[in-house]
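Can you make up a protein sequence with its backbone structure tokens?

===
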Amino acid sequence: VIASTSVNLAELLRQTGRPQEALSVANRAVEFAEEIYTNQVEPVDANTTLVPAHGCRAHALQALGRYSDAVSDWDRIVAVARNPVRPAHFVSRAYCMVQAKQFHNAAAEAMRLASESQVHPDNLYNVACILCLSAPAMPDTTDASNNDQPTQQQCVETALTLLEQLNQSKYFDDAARAAHVRVDSDLTVLHDEPRFRQLFPATPDAQDVP
């Protein structure tokens, strides 16, 4: 109860523009949750204890610009989280890696997620964004010593394939999504790609949708 109350308070503080106070409360939430999980007498669901606590601390750290520290909380989350929420947390960690300028790790994570079969369409869109944001930092050619490291072109091609798959599943039949994808700054590296232009022809009334 103490842990969940602290999580709710930390989220409220962060959402009302008080991230430093949110972090202090989140630290307590993590402490309580870890103690409950470590000393459990009966089985404890990590999805309702550790995951929310570390998640609220990760969000507070990200609000403070401490992205590398936040990645550590996401590491803990993906280590203990169970399906069906686990894939979404991998996506959140990869986005945080981008913010921390850990582009190689983010791209490798995103490539793995792109091949998963149980990733929600919203998260697949985010995976495409992560690949695009990471692409400029990737090597031009494959590194024989690191087969898990994608190249710039592999990131771009995979992002385009994901968007095509989403389009085929009618994800962009939603007007807001269709407008947003055309101007999403996360996808800037795709804007001059013929496949992207064919998929999303420019429209005179395209506008950014938050």
Q: What stands out?
A: Residues 206-210 have pLDDT under 50 and may be disordered. Residues 19-38 form the longest helix (20 residues). DSSP finds ten helices and no strands in the chain. The radius of gyration is 19 Å.
